[in-house]
Design brief:
Elements (H helix, E strand, L loop, with lengths): L32 H11 L78 H8 L2 H30 L6 H9 L6 H31 L4 H26 L3 H20 L1 H9 L1 H49 L2 H18 L2 H30 L1
Amino acid sequence: MNCTNCGNPLAESAKFCNKCGTPVAAAPAVNSPEDFERTVSILDDEPIPAQVPAYSAPEPQPAYQAPQPVAQPAYQAPQPVAQPAYQAPQPVAQPTYQAPQYQAPAGAAPYASVSNEPKEKKSKFIRNIAPKEVKSKAVVGTVLSVILALLLVCNIAMTLMLPVYNIPFVSLALSAEGTDVDAQQLDEEIDELLEEYEDEKEEMEQSIEDARDDGMPKKDIKAAEELVELTDEMVDNFADFGKNPSLMNLYTLYNNVLRLEDEIVDSDGYDLIEKYDPDGMVDLEESIDDFDDGLEDVRDVMFILFAAVIGMWAFGFLFALFGIIFRQTALIVAGSIFSFFYAIALSNVFTALLTLVLGIVLAVFTAKVNSAYKQYKRS
């Protein structure tokens, strides 16, 4: 028979497989006649002698063989993988900055300057280095500068020599007060003043002759004649102003009248009037007071006009002058604007527009020359 587990052939009496150690199942016994009879007798309650099979000792089993350990390969520690040595990043070469080179206009020679050479000043640059086009702009700018400077000087001269009532600012103020003054009206007033004075002068001279005939002391007669001469001089000043009623002549008239008034009051002839004609002295003092009030009004007008003339003109002229000298576009524009408003208020519209146009054109030419010089300095 064979082992039911491993199929190993076994002896009939084997209890265990001598290869895998599996127990061998006993074969079932075949019933004999004696077994049948015994069974019947048991059923019939007859005791059946027990038959115990003889004990057979188990066959010796092979010695236990411990399983042999399977040889394991020796542990091999992982070998470190060689890493490439650290390479520091190499700096990337950056392109060197190249300053933009000045491009000369077509047909002009480029600048012969090298970047590491010292740069010339603007005046020498224009004379020696600048291309022809830039030089021509500088020449035109210089001519315009001279014209503008002369125009600014003419502006203030024109203001000082204009008839006072023709100055735009004064004319506007007179119109606002409802007073219209022109050359004809002023001439008529001056002529009327001269005619009145001639009549009074004849009366004074006749009074002096009468006083001489009456035996007036020579000292008093001489004082009266000096008073007439001072009065003549004052009237002559008014007549001269009437011929040319400019701002400068108004200033001259004001100063001469103040001087003559003080001389008249301090003269012996003034005391002579108080001595021989007390009533006439009262009228004369009232006339002098009214005259002084008029002089104060003239002084106020002159102060305002001269302040406006000097202030506005000086600002415009100085801004333009420094802009021309240093070739600064902003100063030229500022000077032109100041001069424009000055001419509008104190000169005339034509010179105002001419000043503004010249200033703007000069500023444009100056800006182009400055731009060329800046490019030269960067080259």
